[in-house]
Amino acid sequence: MLDKKLLSLTLLTLVLGLGLVFSGTFVAFGQEDKVTFATSFGGNELEIFKELMAQFEDDTGIEVEVQPVSRNMKTALGSRVEAGNPPDMANVPNPGLMNNFAMKDQLASLDWFKDTELADKMAGGFIGSGSYKGTLYGVVPAASVKSLVWYNKKVFEEQGYEIPETVGELLQLQNEMLTDGYTPWTVGLESGAATGWPGTDWLEDIMLRLAGPEVYDMWVNHDIPWTDPRVAQAFRVFDLFVNEDTVMGGRKAALTINFGDSAQYILPTEGRDEPRALMHRQATFIQDFIQEAHPDAEVGEDYDTFIFPAFGKESPPILFAGDLFIAFNDKPAVRELIKYFASADIQQTWVEKNPGRLAVNVDVPLSAYPNDTLRKAAEALKEAETARFDGSDSMDSAVGSGSFWSGVVDYVQGEKSLNDVLTTIENSADDAYDSGEATD
Amino acid sequence: MRNRKFVSWLFVGPALLVVGFFLLYPTVITTYTSFLGDVDMQGAFPTGNFIGVQNYVKVLTASETLIAFRNTMLWLVVMTAFTVGFGLILAVLLDRVPYESIAKSVIFMPMAVSFTAASIIWKFVYAYRPPGFTQIGLLNSLLGAIGDFASRPGVNNALNILFIAFGIIAAILALLSLAKGMWSAIETWKEDNRINWIAGAVITGFVLLAVWYIIGFIGTRSGTTPLGMAGTIIMILGMVSLGLAAIRDTSFGPPLMGALILLGIVDFMLSQIGFEPTTWLLERPWTNNMALIVMGIWVWTGFAMVMLSAAYKGIPTSMLEAARVDGANELQVFWHVTIPYMKTTIIATTTTIVIFVLKIFDFVWVTTNGEYGTDVLASLMIRKMYSFYNYETASALAVVLFVLIVPFVIINIRRFQSREAIR
Lengths: 440, 423
Prior knowledge:
The complex is a heterodimer.
Chain A: H1 2-28, E1 34-39, H2 43-60, E2 63-68, H3 73-82, E3 89-92, H4 95-103, H5 112-115, H6 126-129, E4 131-132, E5 135-136, E6 138-139, E7 142-145, E8 148-152, H7 153-159, H8 167-179, H9 197-220, H10 229-241, H11 250-256, H12 259-262, E9 279-281, H13 286-293, E10 303-307, E11 318-322, E12 324-327, H14 332-342, H15 344-353, E13 358-359, H16 372-383, E14 387-389, H17 391-394, H18 397-413, H19 418-434
Parallel strand pairs in A: 1-2, 1-3, 11-14
Antiparallel strand pairs in A: 3-12, 4-5, 6-12, 7-11, 7-13, 8-9, 8-10
Chain B: H1 2-33, E1 36-40, E2 47-50, H2 54-61, H3 63-94, H4 100-112, H5 115-126, H6 138-150, H7 153-187, H8 193-219, H9 226-248, H10 254-273, H11 286-313, H12 317-325, H13 330-359, H14 362-367, H15 377-387, H16 391-422
Antiparallel strand pairs in B: 1-2
């Protein structure tokens, strides 16, 4: 009696299991007029993204299935690709991941996009950022600018501080602040398992300005070693800005304060009359953090931004981050979607609905942005002759999310010599770019 | 008979399958991967070219691995010793108090908290803000509060009086003991060498304490100056030798010894760190690693305590009584009856904790992420595998870790089997 029950139960499980397997296989077969899109967007961003996709469906009649995956695109997407069941499209947060797929021939070439007139509308450097060995694999529809300095506008006006137009002027301004008894910078490098990344942004900005975009690309692709004098020079310039005297609370504070907490100190905190520091270098997104800590503060009135200047008077190069749209399958529907998201119309809708994102298409008018700060950033992005993707995101993760972070942390702590720091990073890079997982 | 064999296989079969698939297969794959270069993880079996022990050479010579090795060894020694030690002391002491179950529940509670949550709790304990900011970390705000309190003029005077009073009491006790010891020494000079030993310890302790007070007056108890540090060390030595004498001479009693040693340690620690906020997780290599190990001790002491307490309660009271009737004092009973009786459980607890410590990674991962020279082998391995996708070196590290753990697993199984055999 019992045996029979057990047997039937086992059989039932087997049948159900097999059924699941087969139905899974059926789902895997895609339809021609349907696009599956795996996305790392979540929360509000995901809602907005879905709205945009609905608009695309209405306009083109192509069905899109948005598949939200975990934040860790690398694992989520990687396993689906390895299993032979990739989505038609996906957005990836950095070229490094795109390059990994491209290297294994798992991506569809987007070179056709270069021949469309949309390609000319993309701001400087954006086509290059989506390319791997000369072939275009990724298109960035919207980005965020990283080369921003947030400052206390009231103190600047009271003290008559001018917005610096060169790195030299910025250093001069910094000294002026110190003489006036102010602390120039508030820096927060702590970010849990990603501690150090805000420091790598500093270094990338400096490297891009100091050595120029060509050397910057070589550095990111590990065509020059970390022990190269130009890299060492960038670290030394970084130390001119971030050291015991110029940073609120000194080196220890810079290492222990969370990146999100650090920005609030450009405005008076804890009931004090004066802010603890006057400037903070961080991407557009940090405005939310400042606003959260100071709900009454007005951007453009109490605090504002300027673009981290170049060494000379030329227009400063822009460091940005953004999502690359990549395709695993080449079919008409996919091409339609990419063209759609590269167009000015949809990008304008996107930046209007999702403040903080900046359109890459130069036809999107500046009036689309809700405030002057974003407008300023968008303008800089539009006019920049050089724009580069956040370098650490593009490096092999053993470096870009490993030894580079640790190196910055060690350097700021000041217990290791610059030579030691750079040699350690170089060793890990040597290792990573040898092992075949490399992006070169 | 054959039928029974079949039935037994039927019962063992599923378990064997599960173990084979989830343990044996990954172990084989990992070991195989650790000998490959340019590995491709697609499919059921990794492919790549065989490069011999190159991955091991790479892993075992990298400076990051050496640091991780050092830290793992530090964890192994310090955490195991303190966890088992505290567990043992608590098991024995709590057995004698009426609120045993409450105290035990409280001490065991961290074990119920997930390690990640525990790490986050401790991150708040160690949190740092620069001087002049509101300290949000428990430890730094506590230190700051003590510092503020102690630096008030009234409190400062009161503390000074307390210290002087304590000094006088210690001196009188030492003198009394000295007189008694001397007297006993003269009385039983030829019969009992042990008394000489006590007298010696007491005299040493007294002299050292006296020197400490003199140095304390000159160095005004500033711990960071060489003089102040010397004074503190001398005080600790003096207290320890007095304490040693106290163990032998029951008139002092163990509580006094405990109080003396504790005061010495607290005094020394305060003199080392002062009242300024400290970056507990940044000061390499000792402070931050020790700060992390304390988290492990906090979590695991409860486990050791429960295991050892069960064993302690299993000791027949008649044996302890017999020892006491024979004239053994409590420490002698502890060393010569309790410890030998609990030996197997102590070993089991120790090996279990050792196995755990070798695998530890959560605490490091959540609090420092291995920065500032705090990486341990497991956290390094996880990072290589899942952050850097360096399957080969991660596998090599995994195998190294596995080889380190296997002996302890064997000890545990052996012990288990011998116990089974007795049953």
